Amino acid sequence: MCRKCLKSMCPQRGSSALNGGAYILNYAGCGSCGLVDMPKEAERVKSGGDGFSGDAEVVDFEHTCSGCAHVIAKHHYTFEVEDDFQKYEMDCPLCGYGEHEVSIEVEDPRLAPDPLLC
């Protein structure tokens, strides 16, 4: 991870959790060669299960400079299904930290109106 390449360290991204791409607005340019171009993905490794069979799907890769292959940041993404909810999580100095949880039911039970208030 290179702090010179980033505008801010691990920005909060709310519910954004991406298993690919880059948050280009946080990229200041390569701290090694100075090139300001879209970073590439390198050393992509998918491990674990598919997220549905009880094992979390984990994707790790490096954001690298497209000119000199300097490592900008390491990206970590996790997806799993737990207790009728899909859970997504991203942690990366370039892309930031974000997590999202959504119900796999047709209607999210957490969003149902309170029967005592009706």
Order of helices and strands: EEEEE
Could you tell me the radius of gyration in angstroms? 18 Å
What is the strand tally?
5
Can you count the helices?
A: 0
Range of strand content: 35-45%
Strand order of the largest sheet: 1-2-3-4-5
Q: What do the pLDDT scores average to?
A: 90
* First-residue to last-residue Cα separation: 53 Å
What structural class do helix, strand and pairing data support? mainly beta
- The poorly predicted ranges are none
Largest sheet: 5 strands, antiparallel
- Helicity range: under 10%
Shape, per Cα inertia axes: elongated
What does this structure look like?
- This protein is an all-beta fold and 118 residues long.
- The chain has strands spanning 40-48, 57-64, 71-82, 85-92, 96-103.
List the helices and strands and how they pair.
Layout lengths: L39 E9 L8 E8 L6 E12 L2 E8 L3 E8 L15
Antiparallel strand pairs: 1-2, 2-3, 3-4, 4-5
Give descriptors for this structure.
38% strand, five-stranded antiparallel β-sheet, 5 strands, 0% helix, mainly beta, 118 residues
Summarize this, please?
This protein has 118 residues and is mainly β.
